[in-house]
Amino acid sequence: VCQAWTGHLVAAAGEGAAAFVTEEDAARTAAVLLTSRERSGEMLEVTGPRMESYSDIAEAIREFTSQRMSYLRATASAARGHLISSAGLTEQAADLTVSCQLAIQAGKYGPPSPVVRDLTGSNPISVREFIQARRRAWAEDRQAFGLPPTGSRQP
Description:
The protein is mainly α. It is built from 7 helices and 5 strands, in the order E-E-E-H-E-H-E-H-H-H-H-H.
């Protein structure tokens, strides 16, 4: 879970990477599948366009928001504790999140597939593109919480 306000992205994913898919791409793909009988019963891998690690995500946050951000590699136990105490997740949600992070570390979420593009006619959005497109909303969220604007480097 990204603790954007503290500048830390804490996870038990090691240097693993995943072909993260956005909610929008997943929803557009689901809409096509729900309104068509062509692929009924077929198992599809709905992914983003490329494999990206938590280090890549931290780098994109730094680049597009000018905010200090680092990826902190954690053990499963430490990541679970962080998710519960700092991010406010329930124990069950923390367990599910950590199991996904461990699967990322083991290389279970990839490679990228062409499903989103094939079904919707549009290329899926990468994590970098997602962060870049939402940097204005991120800045507004920071302001709403009374935090300094991105680009203000606090010691």
